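Its record is quoted verbatim for completeness.
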Amino acid sequence: MSKTYRDTFFDQGFITNIKIFNNDYVQNACDDYINFINNTNRQQTVEAKTKTHLFFPWANKIIFEKRILDIVENIIGENIVCWNSLIFHKKPKTSNFVSMHQDQNYWNIEMNKGLTVSLALTDSNVENGCLRILPYSHKKSYEHIDLNDKSNMLARGQTIDFKNDKVSSQIQNIELEKGECCIFHGNIAHGSLKNNSDSHRVLYAMRFLTPDNKINTSLYYNYATLVRGENNLNNFLNEPTLKNSAISDLRKLHKEIIITQFSKYLKLKIKINFLVNFFMIFFKMNFLRRFLYYYLKKS
């Protein structure tokens, strides 16, 4: 593997327009996802967006894709876990957006030992709200604020308040054809705008880390799927895969993780443990979580 990927990645903070899959492969994955959201309830739709590789068979297969992992290994080393994967889906003509933010500011992982592979399941362009990145911003830490905006696809509304218009003008649109990916640093400032088009825009984002990272378990889960090398440091609990388990086993763990993460989210908002524990008695019930997602307008 050429060192070009690694050098470019650590210099500007991202590499982009890397072709991974042909159009038919990603179209089948996208069709499966769109069919799912059109034929299921709000609670399942919302929850399947996180830890997606534990919910959809196609998503679990993609995190093991050799063409992806060869590049990831060239950047962060031979031992790799997939800590999370997410669907960023914008329906046609919707106001959903992702505010500019740095993942590192919230993950608290070690610098240079984590990255995101954002794979386009549809064409992603300016009109439909493509990924936007501020080059070289991974070398700086920006102040973040949490903004309450129901159109923001980030749970906490984490947002960089750019006070310098010159900085904002340097943000680059990352347009991708379906089957292409962009790989970006855990500390790069990134986000996306709303979808003004008549088509769906779907990105599948995979978070890859080295096993020596330590997750703040008061904020996040520490389950991960070992995708290459070894995981023998006990920082991450190994997740089952389709190579050794049925999809029903993966989905069982997915539900447990989502409910646990929901309680962590409540603690951030309410900050009173006994109230959180009381509410969680009820929110373990699917129909009550469904009602809450409806109230929060999460879809």
Remarks:
- Residues 224 and 238 are 5 Å apart (CA to CA).
